Amino acid sequence: MNASTQAAASASSSTALAGQAPLTRVSLAFVAHRMNLYLRFGTPARIIQLDRWRRVAVFLPSAVFCRIRWEANDYGTTCWQLMVMQACTPLDVAQRISGVQPGARLLLHAEGERSLRAVLERIDAIEAHGVAAADVSPAYWHTLGNRLAAHLPLPDYTAARHTAWLAGRMLS
Fold first, then answer.
1. What is the β-pairing status of strands 64-73 and 35-41?
2. Given 3, 18, 60, 95, which residue has the most CB atoms within 10 angstroms?
3. How far is Cα 149 from Cα 2, in angstroms, rounded to an integer?
4. C-alpha R_g of the chain
5. CA atoms within 13 A on the CB side of 19
């Protein structure tokens, strides 16, 4: 293959890739008694197993997912963290989040065992109503995060709220 053929091939492949939306890659890991970085909800397009301890979940644009981080040392738990994120589309502005490439929209961030358990109770209640947590309105996750930060009562995700969200999504 000569230089002009290689240049034409790389130009056509880069043009084809430019029309595709970037995928969001989320790092996951597990080390017994030390660290667990896992997905609570969300449906990755693909999961890549890197080695025995590490994986990468790949999400399509606009997918909503929740990643939980738990870390410990010899004396007990050092980190409880829960993040609900939305994979970005090419037109979105992405936030830089450790372990998420190229970034995502942060919908909810909870730190500490008490906050994390409160959010997990809300997720369980949503799923008990037959609604997948990944299909919940992003505005609800924002509201939940703001209420959590302000130490206010946490709102429930009702069937009426979900129906309104679905109807609004159909209009846009």
1. antiparallel
2. 60
3. 60
4. 19
5. 5
Q: Is the peptide bond before 102 cis (omega within 30 degrees of 0)?
A: yes
Contact status, residue 36 vs residue 28, Cβ threshold 8 Å: no
Asked if 87 contacts 60 with a C-beta cutoff of 8 angstroms, the reply is yes
Helices (H) and strands (E) in the chain, counts: 4, 8
DSSP 46-60: EEEE-SSSEEEEEE-
Cβ burial of 157 (10 Å; 0-12, 13-18, 19+) is buried
pLDDT tens-digit readout, 38-54: 999 999 999 999 999 99
DSSP one-letter code for 163: H
Position 170 confidence tier, pLDDT thresholds 50, 70, 90: confident
Cβ distance 38 to 120 under 8 Å?
Answer: no
Mean pLDDT for all residues in the chain: 88
Which pTM value belongs to this model? 0.84
Query: Any residues with CB less than 8 A from the CB of 126 and at least 6 apart, and which?
Result: 133, 136, 157
Kindly give, in sequence order, each residue whose CB lies less than 8 Å from that of residue 152, ignoring residues fewer than 6 positions away.
none
Instruction: Please answer whether residues 23 and 52 qualify as being in contact, where contact means their C-beta atoms are separated by less than 8 angstroms.
Output: no
